[in-house]
């Protein structure tokens, strides 16, 4: 029995050596450019043994890809985008995919060889998750495009391929190369971190400077057309001032170039919506799904004076401390729309900053 176990261990060790040698060969020279004899030399075995274990070069190629995709899937299955806003998802997507390329470089080298040579074996043996991951991200980006979160002129598929293209210029490079390109000193890991942050900045903010400013985390175009007024409705006594979302939203609003923020905290001032404001920002909260009484009274007042809300842009921010808040958010958006206003829809998971960006875009800024 001991001899049998030792024999099995030797068999596994030999197969692992062959697979490792084959992975390096395919990554260096492609499937078409690799010979079994070269793999045998790298693995320090004879060719007959490779054929004994793997039958053919294609079968060996399949086994190499299977092992690499098992590593890739282990990464992918750990990811979760739940609760992240679009900007955080884009940052994490770039960072994680770049780390993947750095950690499993041979998978991507083999893929690139096949793409250059017009081969079909990679697609034949690729994990189904490989394609599914792309389709899911494309679908998500298209939703953001429809919601006005990302540039409506972008082709989402081209965008994703462009992000990967940036990564492909760097993931395989060693320290000397990275130091030469970045002009910085540091370890390989530190320089890769610099590169990935540059890619994130490019994806988030583009190339040109001057046409947009970033102040307090919000980016908006400069305008010489005069200041715009934004009215924030949040009557005192409701606890809005104490919530962290409020500070973020007000800070972002106040940092917009050319904008004056007018905060109304007295319900008595809500008889009509000020005629000079381009945007009305309504804060709400709920415990069990009920609509805040002051907003009910405001809606009743606006209903009696139909012209007050007509064609006005209204942003609603329901503080999401419980599951019922999502329902109230949608009810309020629908209620203002029925009064003839235009509600800036807030998508689930959207951060305060991204919601303000969406509102600014709808205001024509």
UniProtKB/TrEMBL annotation:
Pfam families: TetR_C_3, TetR_N. InterPro entries: Homeodomain-like_sf, HTH-type_TetR-like_transc_reg, HTH_TetR, Tet_transcr_reg_TetR-rel_C_sf, Tscrpt_reg_YcdC_C. The keyword DNA-binding applies. Keywords: DNA-binding. GO terms for biological process: negative regulation of DNA-templated transcription. One of its GO terms (molecular function) is DNA binding. Transmembrane segments: none annotated. This is Uncharacterized protein.
